[in-house]
Amino acid sequence: MGTEDKYAIIGAGPSGLCGAKNLKEMGIPFDGYEAASDLGGLWNIKNENSTVYESAHLISSKGMTEFEDFPMKDDVADYPHHSELYQYFSDYADHFGLREHYQFNMAVKKIEEVNGKWKLTTEAGISNLYKGIIIANGCLTHPNIPNIPGNFEGELLHSKDYKDPSIFEGKKVLIIGAGNSGCDIVVDAVHRAQKVDMSVRRGYHFVPKYIFGKPADTIGGFIQLPRLLKQRIDKWLLNTFFVVNPQRLGFPEPDHKLYESHPIVNTLVLYHLGHGDLRVKKDVVKFEGKTVHFKDGTQEEYDMVLCATGYQLHYPFIDKNHLNWGEEKAPQLYLNIFTPHHNNIFVLGMVEATGLGWEGRNKQAILVARFISEMEKGSHKAQQFFQKIQSGMPDMRGGFEYMDVERMAYYVHKDTYLKQIKRHLKMLS
Ligand SMILES: Cc1cc2nc3c(=O)[nH]c(=O)nc-3n(C[C@H](O)[C@H](O)[C@H](O)COP(=O)(O)OP(=O)(O)OC[C@H]3O[C@@H](n4cnc5c(N)ncnc54)[C@H](O)[C@@H]3O)c2cc1C
User: Fold this and answer.
1) Taking Cα atoms as reference points, which of 96, 44, 39 lies closest to residue 70?
2) Would you state the pLDDT for residue 1?
3) Which of 137, 264, 318, 333 to probe ligand 1 with, by most ligand atoms within 8 A of CB?
4) 34 close to ligand 1 (CB < 6 Angstrom)
5) What is the structure's pLDDT at 223?
């Protein structure tokens, strides 16, 4: 079969793999392209695009993250290490026979529309025409580098390039950013560095990994409370019983309510702050030699500054207009998947939500596979579905006022999102 009768999938991370599995199950022919030499996406630390570090574990528990039809083994930890996750994806690909559909070391450089089909060109200069493309190249690999005036004369790096805590040995270290990666990394640094500070722009809500002896994300799903009540009660419970008040330890008061940004699932940071092993500093305003100037007028000298300042969405191989992406912080995709401009370009994995896990990405993939299958049959349902995509976006925020920052621009409320996916799946059945 020629490629013109097939679909192409870009990426063999969790999103690409479940995309491949669902196409395969629906009998839709496809080719997979993966830039790295193996599958697993960012959970394969050997993949040069991987943004995990040696100490990285899941921050959501395994039961809330795994694919429903492929549970992790009983002997896998509640919050598995990245190496266990690489093994999991490897087993998943073998179980569903996905590996043989992929070409590895095959980065996609460009996709261009040609008479309603898509010409895909690889970095190696190979071009093929496809019926459609599924983009699953990940959201957390293109570093967001802060624009700080001045020049830092010590070592300056982004968390993307951080792998091993030995780099901190005996040094004076500043970590910028207190997101989940920043907090993991600062805990690594505490055990090696001579001095560790953490610069934060805002306060965060901290959640422990265990509550009442169970993974925290498995608690609280039984009683559905109104949003405002839930925010208040959960905040009170957390700060009264489960975590030390972060403001007592130097963190500013959060400028957002609980659940309006991704919570920080790490209480070790608070533990080390409480032991005086590290300090919280204000926002950085300037570098000068090895001196870092902070917003409150203080200054400190460091050997190393590590920016744990997050990632930007990055689809360098396709014209942004095709993804309905103008000046907004993220492509304006229906259900974070479908562009209103084409019925044969799909994005998988451009979604974040507390508790969505890989099963949430799998649900996206099921919907895409069903849509393609109905389109292939020329069904009326598929046409109606595409008209709906072109008629406006459903709200998936569940009433939450998410922070107006890039990383929250494609954030959804899990239950609202899954309900929408279910509703849309019904339209195609
Ligand atoms: C430290 C850390 C902790 C995390 N913890 C959790 C957690 O606890 N729970 C959770 O649900 N999520 C977590 N995440 C989020 C994570 O993004 C998802 O778990 C998941 O890896 C997303 O899968 P993906 O397939 O969309 O992207 P990725 O895993 O990034 O895979 C994308 C793949 O596409 C390939 N690719 C990229 N560009 C090209 C190209 N041009 N051509 C061909 N191939 C290409 C890449 O090489 C990669 O293999 C965490 C992320 C990090 C960094």
Assistant:
1) 96
2) 85
3) 137
4) yes
5) 53
